[in-house]
């Protein structure tokens, strides 16, 4: 019997069997070992229409489209980061060149906690592998509207930060409520910046959410929002730590749930994020996701101890989830200038200050940001950042579709930047990255 | 003296080798219905008056297995499989009586669900009711824990003529391939066993007492007796004979492309320092993907008899063959006609070739000679593109460590070795379009038989140690022992080397000069909580394909 994938599906599998944050860290050599065993034993790569690709390495230029790395890219990364971001980029290229219809970058280390400014590692992430892929897609392939749906159990605060001001990249994060889990953010009130109010959508789910509640959220919030937004591409930050066996979270999601989620979301590209139940969850979740992407039957992909009756949410939990979805939809329907004015007021420039902690590398960062309010483009902004490692930098961002006024403002900010160790200009309109000391 | 036979689809090439080289050769027509007779004719043809007692080794390739798969003449096989979580095992249905029973093991070989022995018994009864005398028994992850397959094997004893288990045929993970390979082993066993018996008897009758070896898909050999345990390994032994035959002529320490240009197809392979590149998982034959180790070989539809035609000013070569060249009485022009026009092929009707190339040339806006040159150049370019694409494919194979990603070996062909009918004519042109040193393999007509004659015995063994669960296993070799907490990589490597050496000797290798090497070695600390619960060690060792000697050939 010849098995054939319904959608041509590409896979980059890069388990980095010789890389760890440290020997006992969840992000260690062993993490994808049993996943490899399962997908190899299933013979998934032999199925007609499923093809495995060797990852590319990203370049410093790829990283510079997204980040201000302090002081530079090699200092805050390891070669493993270049490969994992490269794996995502490989899937994007294969998709755009038409060799595949779906792609899954099953790579480590992850990236969704990496923000625009990078002083080091936070939440096991140093550079944001989805954002690097998205900026590659915008620059090399001219893709206009992209939706990133982050289904990792932890709030994708890094991706949120990077697309905070950008209404062309919709960011939706479903995660365990920030009051109960790292990084302690991702509340509904975090809805995007003044130029993109409503285009960051946070859906905090209560602990113990299982198949019914999670899939309800996808069908009643995520999918309607995607229908409205009409993205050219859908990217899934496919963290697998909502699983009922995950050691560092409190959710009750399952391999069947993940496969169904993938089928519903139907992303063009999925990128692995977290997921640390390396034996009891990952082998089954990944097999389920690959089969779902390829359009094949996944009904036999069940954890050895799968018992949906035990995992099921209480009535109260389900009712709470329904309310969250209603509020999310209500806020989404009010997105745009009016919501912006209500939340941020009407100003020529918007300023904000915040502090950011890097739990993985133990760094504390203070940031001041100024944004030009704009209705013609995503708006240029300037970030002043200092870390307790002693760095003071200024980073200026000019957006992809910058209007002349924002362009001029960005260039002026960069020219006048002084008093810092380094200043960077990330001019996305010209795909240019400049730095001065 | 050694006798090498390459039993091909149409012809069988045979050589008798002495220490100084080829002593005798012959080419016989292959009788697919009576391969034993073909083999004997070949042996008689090279031996003549020579005392058969002086023959120290006989190696033959055979089309038996490949043809059985392609012609679908395998003995019916009943399959009993157990799978557990993952894809629906029914998707891998093969053979006329396929049964899925309950029972499951996980990736570390732990039992998830007990084997349903009653269901196994019932399946056996149903298989027997159909008059089927061979069974294949396969479970998912049996290479991590063969106990379910072993239990089924025990229950099958006495009920069937041949019983094959998945864990014995390879240590590589891939359940669907394990199912197909096991089915193939069981299905070809009868035919192979008759062939083997007939060859043995016929050789004895002729006074040949030397050990008889069969060539495998990986370019290595094993004894006739060993072949009975895993007859599927003899698939595609023909193509591997040619590649092995190129080795004496390959320069050392270089990456070499081997191009075997036949009438209809060109077969391509890569040698790295005289060692052929292997397929990552195994041979694929007639659409059946297996775990039988095989040389990496790509076949493209371009050869001396490929049909030439022009469509929209563009020259097309192949992939069809519509008979021989015009100059040999065929219906349509071919590259062989282009050679005939240019005086590079003699023994045909040049006038017929010229006429055909004039017509073709008109469509291309060229004289016959110019068109002929153009055809040969285009043929070389197409072969080059396919060969370079194959190399890119090998270099593009996924890797799973940073070390391999950043420092992995990159194949860069430095020379071409050309075999087959048009080898001498095309070798210079191929060298030119590839920008590489290029030569025709001397005496290519018997290189395949020489390759078979000189191929060494090969094998591989996978060792898995899990010190948390407290075992070290090599299911292929039916090896299982307790692993102490201190069991480490050095222990695993020593064990793998010992097992692979013993296996090679059992398969018929010569102890003298037997070299084993470690193919892969991985060790993982299994952390549970913040402490190390044990080590997970995986080692794969092999005897790599190569020749027992180069002597007297190159």
UniProtKB/TrEMBL annotation, chain A:
It comes from Desulfobotulus alkaliphilus. Belongs to the histone deacetylase family. GO terms for molecular function: histone deacetylase activity. Residues 81-280 form the Histone deacetylase domain. PANTHER family: HISTONE DEACETYLASE HDAC1, HISTONE DEACETYLASE HDAC1-RELATED. This is Acetoin utilization deacetylase AcuC-like enzyme. InterPro entries: HDACs, His_deacetylse_dom, His_deacetylse_dom_sf, Ureohydrolase_dom_sf. One of its GO terms (biological process) is epigenetic regulation of gene expression.
UniProtKB/TrEMBL annotation, chain B:
One of its GO terms (molecular function) is 5-oxoprolinase (ATP-hydrolyzing) activity. It holds the Pfam family Hydantoinase_A. InterPro entries: ATPase_NBD (IPR043129), Hydant_A_N (IPR008040), Hydantoinase_A (IPR002821), Oxoprolinase-like (IPR045079). Residues 3-157 form the Hydantoinase/oxoprolinase N-terminal domain. GO terms for cellular component: cytosol. One of its GO terms (biological process) is glutathione metabolic process. Residues 178-458 form the Hydantoinase A/oxoprolinase domain. This is N-methylhydantoinase A/oxoprolinase/acetone carboxylase beta subunit.
């Amino acid at each position: 019997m010849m098995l054939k994938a319904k959608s041509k599906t590409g896979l980059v599998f890069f388990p980095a069997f010789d890389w760890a944050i440290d020997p006992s860290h969840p992000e260690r050599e062993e993490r994808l070992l049993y996943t490899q065993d399962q997908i190899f034993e299933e013979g998934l790569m032999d199925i007609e229409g499923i093809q495995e690709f060797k990852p590319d390495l990203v370049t410093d230029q790829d990283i510079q489209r997204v980040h201000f790395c302090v002081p530079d890219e090699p200092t805050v990364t390891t070669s493993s980061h270049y490969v994992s971001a490269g794996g995502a980029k490989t899937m994007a290229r294969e998709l755009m060149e038409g060799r595949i219809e779906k792609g899954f970058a099953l790579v480590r280390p992850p990236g969704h906690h990496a923000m625009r400014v990078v002083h080091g590692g936070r939440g096991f992430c140093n550079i944001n592998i989805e954002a690097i892929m998205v900026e590659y897609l915008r620059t090399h392939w001219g893709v206009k509207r992209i939706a990133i749906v982050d289904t990792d159990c932890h709030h994708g605060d890094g991706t949120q930060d990077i697309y905070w001001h950008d209404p062309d990249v919709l960011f939706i994060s479903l995660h365990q409520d920030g009051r109960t889990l790292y990084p302690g953010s991702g509340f509904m009130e975090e809805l995007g910046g003044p130029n993109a109010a409503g285009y960051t959508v946070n859906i905090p789910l209560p602990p113990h959410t299982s198949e019914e509640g999670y899939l309800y959220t996808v069908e009643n919030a995520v999918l309607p929002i995607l229908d409205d937004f009409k993205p050219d591409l859908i990217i899934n930050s496919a963290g697998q730590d909502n699983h009922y066996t995950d050691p560092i979270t409190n959710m009750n999601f399952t391999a069947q749930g993940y496969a169904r989620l993938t089928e519903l979301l139907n992303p063009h590209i999925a990128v692995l994020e977290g997921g640390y139940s390396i034996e009891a969850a990952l082998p089954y979740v990944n097999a389920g996701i690959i089969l779902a992407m390829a359009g094949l039957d996944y009904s036999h992909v069940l954890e050895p101890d799968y018992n949906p009756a035990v995992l099921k949410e209480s009535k109260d939990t389900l009712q709470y989830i329904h309310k969250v979805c209603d509020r999310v939809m209500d806020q989404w329907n009010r997105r745009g200038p009016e919501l912006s004015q209500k939340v941020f007021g009407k100003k020529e420039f918007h300023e904000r200050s915040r502090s950011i902690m890097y739990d993985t590398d133990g760094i504390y960062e203070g940031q001041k940001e100024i944004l030009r309010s704009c209705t013609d483009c995503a708006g240029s902004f300037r970030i002043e950042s200092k870390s307790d490692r002693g760095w003071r930098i200024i980073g200026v961002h000019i957006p992809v579709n910058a209007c002349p006024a924002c362009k001029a403002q960005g260039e002026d900010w960069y020219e006048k930047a002084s008093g810092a160790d380094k200043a960077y200009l990330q001019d996305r309109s010209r795909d240019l990255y400049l730095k001065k000391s | 003296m050694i006798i090498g036979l390459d039993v091909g689809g149409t012809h069988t090439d045979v050589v008798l080798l002495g220490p100084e080289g080829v002593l005798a050769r012959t080419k016989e027509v292959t009788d697919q219905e009576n391969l034993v007779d073909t083999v004997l004719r070949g042996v008689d043809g090279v031996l003549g008056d020579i005392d058969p007692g002086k023959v120290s080794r006989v190696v033959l390739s055979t089309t038996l297995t490949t043809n059985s798969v392609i012609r679908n003449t395998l003995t019916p096989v009943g399959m009993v499989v157990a799978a557990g979580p993952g894809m629906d095992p029914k998707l891998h249905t093969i053979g006329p009586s396929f049964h899925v029973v309950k029972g499951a093991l996980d990736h570390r070989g732990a039992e998830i669900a007990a084997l349903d022995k009653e269901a196994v018994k019932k399946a056996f009864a149903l298989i027997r009711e159909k008059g089927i005398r061979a069974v294949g028994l396969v479970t998912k992850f049996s290479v991590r824990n063969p106990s379910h397959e072993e239990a089924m094997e025990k229950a099958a004893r006495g009920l069937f003529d041949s019983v094959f288990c998945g864990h014995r045929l390879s240590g590589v993970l891939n359940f669907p391939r394990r199912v197909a390979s096991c089915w193939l082993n069981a299905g070809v066993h009868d035919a192979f066993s008759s062939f083997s018996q007939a060859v043995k008897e016929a050789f004895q009758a002729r006074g040949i007492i030397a050990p008889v070896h069969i060539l495998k898909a990986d370019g290595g050999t094993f004894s006739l007796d060993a072949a009975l345990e895993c007859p599927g390994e003899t698939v595609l032994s023909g193509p591997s004979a040619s590649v092995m035959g190129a080795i004496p002529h390959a320069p050392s320490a270089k990456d070499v492309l081997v191009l075997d240009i036949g009438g209809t197809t060109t077969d391509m392979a890569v040698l790295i320092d005289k060692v052929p590149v292997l397929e990552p998982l195994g041979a694929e034959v007639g659409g059946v993907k297996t775990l039988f180790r095989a040389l990496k070989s790509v076949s493209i539809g371009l050869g001396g008899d490929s049909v030439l035609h022009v469509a929209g000013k563009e020259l097309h070569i192949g992939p069809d063959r519509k008979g021989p060249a015009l100059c040999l009485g065929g219906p349509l022009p071919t590259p062989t006609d282009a050679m005939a026009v240019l005086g590079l092929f003699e023994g045909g009707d040049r006038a017929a070739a010229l006429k055909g190339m004039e017509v073709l040339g008109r469509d291309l806006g060229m004289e016959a000679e110019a068109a002929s040159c153009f055809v040969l150049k285009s043929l070389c370019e197409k072969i080059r593109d396919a060969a370079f694409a194959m190399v890119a494919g090998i270099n593009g194979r996924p890797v799973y460590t940073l070390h391999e990603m950043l420092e992995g070996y990159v194949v860069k062909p430095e020379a071409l070795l050309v075999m087959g009918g048009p080898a001498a004519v095309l070798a210079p042109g191929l060298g030119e379009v590839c920008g590489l040193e290029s030569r025709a393999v001397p005496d290519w007509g018997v290189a395949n038989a020489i390759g078979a004659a000189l191929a060494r015995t090969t094998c591989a063994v996978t060792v898995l140690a899990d010190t948390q669960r407290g075992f070290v296993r090599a299911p292929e070799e039916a090896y299982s022992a307790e692993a102490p907490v201190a069991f480490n990589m050095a222990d695993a490597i020593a064990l793998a080397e010992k097992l692979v050496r013993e296996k090679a000797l059992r398969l018929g290798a010569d102890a003298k000069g037997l070299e084993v090497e470690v193919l892969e070695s991985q060790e993982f600390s299994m952390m549970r909580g913040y402490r190390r619960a044990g080590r997970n060690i995986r080692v794969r060792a092999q005897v790599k394909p190569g020749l027992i000697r180069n002597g007297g050939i190159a």
